Amino acid sequence: MNTWFANLSVTRKLALGFGLVLALTLILASVAWTSMGGLIQRSNWTADINHLSNLLTELRVDRLRYMLDNGDEKMAEVVQKSLASYSNAHADVRSRFRSEENVRLLAQQAEQIELYKQSFNRVSAARKTFGCWRNRPSRSNCTSNPSIAWPRPIARHALLANRWAAWRSRLLPNLRTCTRRCS
């Protein structure tokens, strides 16, 4: 090999050296270009998820305002709009992901969104019915929703007793372990 390289003229040696440097520069540039494309794609995905997170925060705030306003119908509409906005953005983001794990997680989240919509609609209907019963002196004027049954006092007390027992059974073991650790 030394004889082959030694027999080359200085011009060809310089051309070969600069050619190798140019080839390595082109390889480095192509690797950097593809890596930058991947980085841009990942940052777009992160921006999409951040946008979903912001919409979810707005939805939570609107839901809390709805709860604090005791089921005001205007706030219910605001929550419905926020929920629709979040659902549309979620569907848009879901179409951009290709990884099986990400698609699976986004599909699970889409199911939870639908369950939340159904639950919120039931809560809104219950609040309307309860508001009608609570605000009118003559409850005979109220049109009740057949899917929402007003519990009888005995059943209501039994329900509260069951909730208290469940809460107490969860709380007492935690308190016992805390007192053992703390003492």
Question: Mind explaining what this structure looks like?
Answer:
- The chain has 183 residues and is mostly helical.
- It has a single domain (7-135), classed as de novo design (two linked rop proteins).
- Helix content is 83%, strand content 0%.
- The protein has five helices and no strands.
- The chain has helices at residues 2-6, 10-68, 73-94, 100-135, 153-182.
- The protein is rod-shaped, with a radius of gyration of 33 Å.
Set out the fold topology.
Layout: H1 2-6, H2 10-68, H3 73-94, H4 100-135, H5 153-182
Helix pairs in contact: 2-3, 3-4
- CATH class division: Mainly Alpha
Range of helix content:
over 70%
Please give the number of β-strands: 0
CATH topology: de novo design (two linked rop proteins)
Structural class: mainly alpha
Question: Count of DSSP helices?
Answer: 5
Uncertain segments: 145-155, 174-183
The structural domain count equals: 1
Give the overall shape: rod-shaped
Strand content: under 5%
